[in-house]
Please model this.
Amino acid sequence: MLDFHAALKKLRNHLKNNDLRFTNERLTILEEIFQFPPHFDAEQLFIYIRKKHNHISRATVYRTLDLLSQIGIIKKENLGKDYASYELDYKMPHHDHLICEICGKVIEFADDIIEKRQREISENNGMVMVRHQLQIFGRCKEHTE
Amino acid sequence: MLDFHAALKKLRNHLKNNDLRFTNERLTILEEIFQFPPHFDAEQLFIYIRKKHNHISRATVYRTLDLLSQIGIIKKENLGKDYASYELDYKMPHHDHLICEICGKVIEFADDIIEKRQREISENNGMVMVRHQLQIFGRCKEHTE
DNA sequence: ACATAAAGTGTGACTCAGTCTCAATTTAAC
DNA sequence: GTTAAATTGAGACTGAGTCACACTTTATGT
Ligand SMILES: [Zn+2]
Ligand SMILES: [Zn+2]
Ligand SMILES: [Zn+2]
Ligand SMILES: [Zn+2]
Model:
């Protein structure tokens, strides 16, 4: 379980090892992601950041999201919208999502049976699994008539 | 298992029941989808159709894909690209996808254990499952070193 | 077959997420 | 402090998809 300081350390490490620079913008964006709702999109985050730090550009936010994804501090995923979603990649080694089609509420889960079965299916089809993504869309308690 | 004639019937039926028109464009697009690779995207399809029927517009192709999705003749889904993929919704009541990250090859599968487990997970979290989508990304035999 | 009303179409302008270019700025390291 | 390389902000650009609207086609009734 990665908190802010561990994430920061991971970032500094990666930057150092790859002859990249530790900039104020990168620090600020990482800080703000930790303040932000767990599942977010780039444009939301950019608008939020822009309000507080009006010199940070959209390009830098997008570039930093890519960087943090490569490092494994955040994860880019599709949660059923037609643009990318992101989340901190720290709660569990892996989890999938239940999404309410009405209110957008997101519930996370990790299930060993499904994980195991996916590895078996991949093998049976001659593939080496690298990653996977499961979204269950439905209606939450508040939105079932 | 829905062949072209069953799909056409389904389309005509839906149109009749909703006071919509059976047009040449809609017929042509349905025909061409049946000629096309099983997993495709809208822009590919539009370019392909445009070559043979140079009066059919992009807007009509997109509008028809929406229509056919609503009827359940095709299905719109995310196969890991940053634009929508489509496929005929006829082979199995439901299936998911294994996708090679290198060559893009798509293998379909349907697994009862996973399907059942998803229903259980939804229940346990107080959700009614409406649909779901599972993509396993990996490397196929030809692309594993 | 013809008239009519409503649905559908093509065009091109538009939106929106995301990327790119490039001059100006900042960082890391000596 | 100097310097070279990396980074940034601004705004132009791209590509998928949508929209408005004048024009065309379809379905229906006669
Ligand atoms: Zn809900
Ligand atoms: Zn999550
Ligand atoms: Zn492959
Ligand atoms: Zn498929």
